[in-house]
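DM from R.C. (forwarded with permission)

"hey, sorry to bug you on a friday — could you get me a structure for this? deadline for the figure draft is monday and I only need the backbone to look sensible"
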Amino acid sequence: MGFGGVVFQSGAELPVRTAARELSTATGAEIVERQTVQGPSRNEILLLAGAEALNHPAVKSLSAGKDVSGEWEAVAGVNGGLVIAGNSPRSLCRAALGWIANPERETGRFSTFRFNERLTMWDVTLNQWYRMTEGFDRKQHIRELARMGHTAIEINRYADSGGWHVRNREFPNDSYAWYVSYAPALDAFVESSLTAGLYPADELERNLADLAGAAETARSYGMACGFVCYEPRCVNEAIFKKYPQLRGSRTDHPGRSLQPRYALDIANPLVLEHYAEMLTRLMQTVPDLRYLVFWTGDSGSGLPFMDGLYFGPNGSWLARSKPLEQMAAEFSGTLAEAGRKINPRFEVLMEIGWEYKEEEWKKIIPALPEGVTVTHPLTGDAAGILCGTDPSSGAGSYLPFDRAHGKEPCGECVISSWWDL
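My reply, with the result:
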C-alpha cells in the first residue's frame, strides 16, 4: 500500500502496538517507536490515542461539529501519509483494523458510538457448540470481534471437545452430557475448599490455561474479558457423597438425560462461600475480568423451585423456606461482591428470558443488589421495572424486539441477543 513506516509514541499501550503490528503486516511498513510524534511524514502512518489526538489538524478537521465526549475514532489522509486515531488505544486499534479491511472506505472517516460497551454474551463459535470446528482459529475470531467494534468478549470454554460431564457420563448414549459441555461453569477452571480434589487437577489446569490465553489475545486488541456460564449448574455427584446436605435442585431434562443431575444448594451459605472462593481464584488469573453472565433454567442449571425447571419446581428444604427472589439476589450478589473486591468495575449479568414466569421475574428484578444487571429478552413491563419507571406510561427501556412499536432503548440498560453472533 506504499507506506514506509508505522509510527507511535514510546510507552504506548498494548492495543496501539497491536495496531502497529497489524498495519506493518498489511503494508510491509517498518514499525517505528519515537519519543515524540508529529506529522506524519510522507508515506508514514501515524498512530494517536487519547483526547490529545483531537489537536492534530487532520483529526480536528474531521471531528468538527461532532460530539467527542464519548468514544470516537478517525482515519485521515494527510501529506501523503495517514493518521489513525481514537479516544482510547482500543478505539485506535479498531480503526486500524477497519482501515486494513477497506482502506478506500475508511480513509476520511470520523465515527462516534452510541453505546460505550458492546459485549458478547453467548458466542456459538468462540466458546459454545462450534468451538472445535475444523479450521477454526480463535485468535482470528477474536481479531474479527475487535474489528466489528466489540469492547469485551467471553473467554471461557472447555479446552477439549467434550469436557468433564461428557467424559464422566454414566451411560454412553446419554446425550444430555453435551448440553453441559458449553458455557462451562466456574468449577471447570478452579476448585474451592469444598471441591478440592474432586475434579482432575490436570483438566482444571488445561481449561484455566486456555482461558488465560484467550484473555491475553483479547487484551492485545484492547478488549475486556467476560465469563459466560450456566449457574447454578449440575456438579460432580461425588460432592454429595462428601456433603449430602448440600444437594440442591435437580436440573437435568428428564426427557433427554439418562441420569439425574443436581446443582449445589444455593440457599446454603456454605455454597455461596464456595462460589465466592471460586470466582476469587479465577480472578487471580484474570484480575481484570469485566463481567460474568449467568444463564439458568437450561442446560443443567436452575434456581431452586423456579417453575421452569425441566424436572419441575424442586430443591432442598432450606431452599423451600426462602423466596426465589431472595435466592437469586443472594447468589448473584455473592458473585458481584467477590468480583468487585478484585476489579471494582466487575459486574454480574443475569439472563432473564423464557425460563421465567412473569410473576417470577417481576419479583427477581427489583430484588437484585448493586453490581447485578439483567440482560436478554425483557420487554414491556420487565423493561419498565428494570429502569425503575412506570410500565403503563410507555417509558423505560425497551429491547430491540419492541422497536417495531416505535420504542427505543433508554441507553442505560444492558441489551443483547445471544443470536447476534
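R.C.: lifesaver. The chain has a mean pLDDT of 90.
me: no worries. The two ends are 32 Å apart (CA to CA).
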